[in-house]
Amino acid sequence: MKSLILRALAAVAAVASLAKADGGDFSVLTMNVAGLPAILNSNEVPGDKATNAGNIGKLFAKYGYDVIHVQEDFAYHAYIYATDNHPFRTPTSGTVIVGDGMNTLSNFDWVNFTRVRWNKCSNASGADCLTPKGFTFMRVKVAESVYVDFYNLHTDAGTENDDEAARTANVQQVADYIDKWSAGNAVVVMGDTNSRYSRTADNIRLFGTQNGLTDAWVQVERNGVIPTVESLCSNPSTTDSCETVDKVLYRGSSIFKLEATFFNYESKKFLQPDGNILSDHNPVGVNFTYSLNGNLRQSGYFGGPHGTWFSDLSALATKSKPAAKVLTFRGARRLDSVGLTLTDGTVFTHGGTGGDPATLTLGSGEFWTSAVLCQAKYKDRTRNFYIKATTSKGNTLESGSSTGDCATFTAPSGWQIVGYMGQDGDEMDQLAFIYAPQ
């Protein structure tokens, strides 16, 4: 009972926050922490690697970046975490051969954390196939209605033909994943891309041409001009105008504008007590601002991170005043599908075809204003078992079977529910609601 009361209070607070908040800012850092075992690679970094890792963790805590992506976090991972204080941190996937070396430390919580291995690797210039490198994905909650899909990646190194072919495939794999799993969402891609714009064989531009991402360095330091001539950085770097392979790329969404306002190679902040470097890579820091638009918002997510991602955001972003006309749910023991028809005839349907249908047609001047979702486990996976919709005139529609683990999502005053986002299969795995003004 206590947990249900706390969840209800949190939902009320979230609605109040959603109604008031219109913008904010956050900081990010990406750093290759040179955590390969010393016996395999010194990374040309002086000092003891375990001590260096502990110092890196201390500096993460000192400067308090909101989201930190690290790469090559292999043999000395525990030393970084022992001295860091970020409240949300990914568990290690293991050292070399076992793990991918990528982790995230954050001031914000997330959902849908996933590790994805590269489909292609090369040992032409090194041992990239020795460990299961790839990328990670997580949906980070920065604030109410402000969810950002963060990607952490470490592509194949080297410049021989096989290296370039593998790296090209790596970038393409991430770009395709963004198209499928981040459709309509804000995105930040950070990590060791092993790529330079000045190398014609590298396809790092793909994130811009295919996914609509902007490179923070190109935007802030080069006024949007992509370089064609190589400019290598020293370490620690004495300028931000040179190019490193460590990059931060981003885009906003139809819910909020995202803008990089500051870029810096944070190298001079990450030095040993004697002034030597802690890594053979310059850490990259970027500050972002976000501002909510006046047309769309979203709720939090409920259910489990399973099934295929779907989102009505892109379709709703093209409409001036969307409003729900007909609600259609299907369910029996669990919630099988959710759908709605807008007043302009647009139909959104997600989930399977099982269960019994239930339909509610809204009257003139009537809006869908709140929803109750209940979740439980089925075949060891958390899913949505139940939904109840309530309109501005007190009419209701429900489907599925209620459980003891439920949450209420209420549109802010003057707003309404007009669409969905989440994950589905034969049933509703994860669900969130999209709001628009009445």
From TrEMBL:
This is Jacalin-type lectin domain-containing protein. Residues 1-21 form the signal peptide. CDD domains: Jacalin_EEP. PROSITE patterns: JACALIN_LECTIN. Keywords: Signal. GO terms for cellular component: cytoplasm. The keyword Aminoacyl-tRNA synthetase does not apply. Residues 296-437 form the Jacalin-type lectin domain. One of its GO terms (biological process) is phosphatidylinositol dephosphorylation. The keyword Signal applies. InterPro entries: Endo/exonu/phosph_ase_sf (IPR036691), IPPc (IPR000300), Jacalin-like_lectin_dom (IPR001229), Jacalin-like_lectin_dom_sf (IPR036404), Sph/SMPD2-like (IPR038772). It comes from the Eukaryota. Pfam families: Exo_endo_phos2, Jacalin. GO terms for molecular function: phosphatase activity; sphingomyelin phosphodiesterase activity.
